[in-house]
Amino acid sequence: MKRWLVVACVVGAVALFGGRPGSAAEFHCNACDVKASEVERCRRMDPADYVTGLLFNPPGMKTYFKRSSCLQAIAVDYRDASLCEEVRERKSLFFDGSAISRASCERRVEERARSDPKVIISDIHRLADVAYFRNGNGRDIDVRVGFSGSYRHQYELTVSMVDEAGANIETLHRNEYSLGASTGELHILVRQAQVATAADALALEPPYRFRVTLALVEPSLAEVRQFGSLPRELRESSIDHRIDPAKLERDSTDLHR
To answer: What CA–CA distance (Å, rounded) separates 25 from 15?
Structure first.
C-alpha cells in the first residue's frame, strides 16, 4: 500500500453477534447448518418406525429403524461418530439388520475419515491492510485489500458502511474469493451511488465508518468438525476506517493510467 488516505480506527477481529445484515455474524458454516437441520429431521422420526423384509438389500440391511438409518447416514457423511450413539440395530428372527447399528456406524465413520485427504486448517488468511482511493473516474472508490496467511480455501469478503452505534450495517460489496499462499491484494470497486444509498439508509454524514470483513467459509465435509471448533476470531477478521469520499485522492501508482 503506497498511501493511507483515511484514519484507521479499528484493526483486528470484530465480533458481532447480533445477526445484523452485513455483519460478521452472518459468516458461518453453511455445511454445519445443513448438518444440524438434517440431524433435527432425523430426530423427529418415530424411533419405533422400521422397515423389514428387504430381501434385495445388501447384507445387514434387510431390516432397520428408519430413524437410525437416517442418523447413521449423516454420521458417515459428516464423519461424526457421536451420532452413532443414537443408532439402534433392529433385531429380527429372519432378517439381518446389523449394517445399521452403533458398531457399524462407528466403523464406517472411521473408514470414511481415514479415506479423507489429511487436511489441517492453519494459517488462515486475515486482513493485513485496507486502503481507500478515489477511482480514476473521479466518483467511485477503489478499496485495496491486503492479506496475511496461506491456507488455500474460499473466503467471503464484504465492504460495509456501519452506523455510529454499530447497530446497523449496509453492505456495499460481498463476494467469495479463492485465496492461497500466492494471493496478492484485491481491488474492490464501490460505486458512488452505493455509498449515497447506504448513507441515506443509515442517516449518516461523512466521514463514514467503513468496515471490511474477511471470513473463512464453506468447509468441505472432511473439514466441518475442525471448522466448527475454530473460534470466531480465528475464522474472521475486520478492519474499520473513517473516510470522507470527497477527500480521497487517487493512488499515485495509478496516475499514469
So the answer is: 7
φ and ψ at residue 73, rounded to 5 degrees: -60, -40
C-alpha–C-alpha distance, residues 228 and 203, integer Å: 37
Q: pLDDT tier at 239 (50, 70, 90 boundaries)?
A: very high
Q: What is the DSSP letter of 6?
A: S
Q: What is the mean pLDDT of residues 138-158?
A: 93
Backbone angles phi, psi at 31, to 5 degrees: -65, -35
Asked whether residue 206 carries a pLDDT value surpassing 70, the answer given is yes
Cβ pair 109, 118 in contact under 8 A: no
Q: What angle do CA 148, 152, 153 make, to 5 degrees?
A: 110
H/E stretch holding 35: helix 30-43
Most confident of 9-13, 51-55, 132-136: 132-136
- Whether the link from the prior residue into 207 is cis, omega within 30° of 0, is yes
Residues 185, 189, 195, 198, CA torsion sign: negative
> How far apart (Å, rounded) are the C-alpha atoms in residues 57 and 193?
61
Those residues whose C-beta lies under 8 Å from the C-beta of residue 182, and which sit 6 or more positions away, are none
pTM: 0.65
H-type alpha helices, 44-156: 66-77, 102-115
| Beta strands 141-148 and 153-162, pairing class | unpaired
Q: What is the largest distance, in Å, between two alpha-carbon atoms of the chain?
A: 84
pLDDT tens-place string over residues 168-178: 999 999 999 99
CB atoms within 10 A of CB 75: 25
Pairing status of strand 236-243 against strand 169-179: unpaired
